[in-house]
Amino acid sequence: MPAVPVDVDPFGDEFLRDPYAFHGALRDAGAVIWLPAINAFGMARFEHVSAALKDHETFCSSRGVGLADFAKEEPFRAPSLLLEADPPLHDRTRQLMNRIVSPKALKDLRPQWQEKADRLVRTLATGIEFDAVTELAEVYPMMVFPDTIGLMDEGRENLLDYAAIVFNAFGPRNQIFEDGIRGSEAAIAWVDAACKRENLKPGGWGMAVFEAADRAECSNEEAERLVRSFLTAGVDTTVNGIGHLVLALSQNPDQFARLRADPALAKKAFEESLRWDSTVQTFFRVTTRDVEIDGTAIPQGAKVLLFLAAANRDPGHWIEPERFDIERNVSGHVGFGFGIHQCLGQMVARLEGELVAKALAQNVASIRPLGEPVRRLNNTLHALASYRVAVQPA
Ligand code: OVM
Predict the structure, then answer these.
(1) Among 61, 82, 162, 209, which is best to mutate for testing ligand 1, by the most ligand atoms less than 8 A from CB?
(2) I want to staple 31 with a disulfide (CB 3.0 to 4.6 A). Which of 36, 140, 176, 294 is the partner?
(3) Model pLDDT for residues 320-374, shown as the tens digit of each residue
(4) pTM (2 d.p.)
(5) In Å, how far are 162, 249, 272, 357 from 389, measured between CA atoms?
(6) Ligand 1 mean position to 344 CA, how many Å?
């Protein structure tokens, strides 16, 4: 059975502005769909997205997790040694990074990160209204993450621009990509410099990668590129994760009340917000062999777009998936992916999200939307530019 064609452009403005309006049609069309707009297959059902993520031998990453097939096209930048790599390379680099982003490291960071979240949220709560994106979601990760890596102080504002460019580059070379890339040479040059040993502060996770290089766990060139992964994946992701957490809590006052009554639900609230609105909406894989999914054939060497966010709202898997319910069991959601590539920084993201949710629960009596969020279109991220909320302090 051939894949059912679905005539939507998953990187078109209309789709990116409200992907959830299109996901139902993608899921309903079939387990495997054909997307003529981008000449790629797609999967949007929970069962098949999670199965493909788990089967990294059939659905590989080394030919790129964006639309560009590295076997045929020049990558936008030197491939990530984690995201755009297969075993055995991937397993070596991932192991090295796992030892740096360790539970112990996270445990040590918690007290300082908590204090910073509390102080920021308390200050914002004393006003009548604030912008949940520009004054909270974009601010908090920048208060904690660059210092943890040990980044140079000058030019950190380039991180968000750089990440937006890279996440756009996973899509086609559309207007969104072109608009982002214009005048971006400075941000790219800054990140290249920031990844170098001589520009990293001692004691940070960046320098820890070079210390692994000194132990011959990787080369110095690999160390630079692994630090680049921290810089690329560590900021715009949590910025928009926190942004959507606040969006969800403010649009669902009953859920915010539940959280206020029991701030220990903060961790679950953030996790549910990631299921309900998944920051990383999509990633591609490439088939390493002919494969049949639910009766539909995908040939070897095909690009397959995995709709993570659609899987996370699949009514075939979740009860009332559109409902934001902080007490729901969200285990198995694919907002952080699944399998060997599952987000390296997930504990970092969870800690940031939990601490912001808890700070809101403890310091804010009510948080209400002042209109609709303003979106920033990105080919991969569901991103926010601005979202004004009205607040009352606790
Ligand atoms: C990387 C990288 C870049 C973007 C996203 C990502 C979500 C990883 O450079 O390894 O994971």
Answers:
(1) 82
(2) 294
(3) 999 999 999 999 999 999 999 999 999 999 999 999 999 999 999 999 999 999 9
(4) 0.98
(5) 27, 11, 20, 15
(6) 9
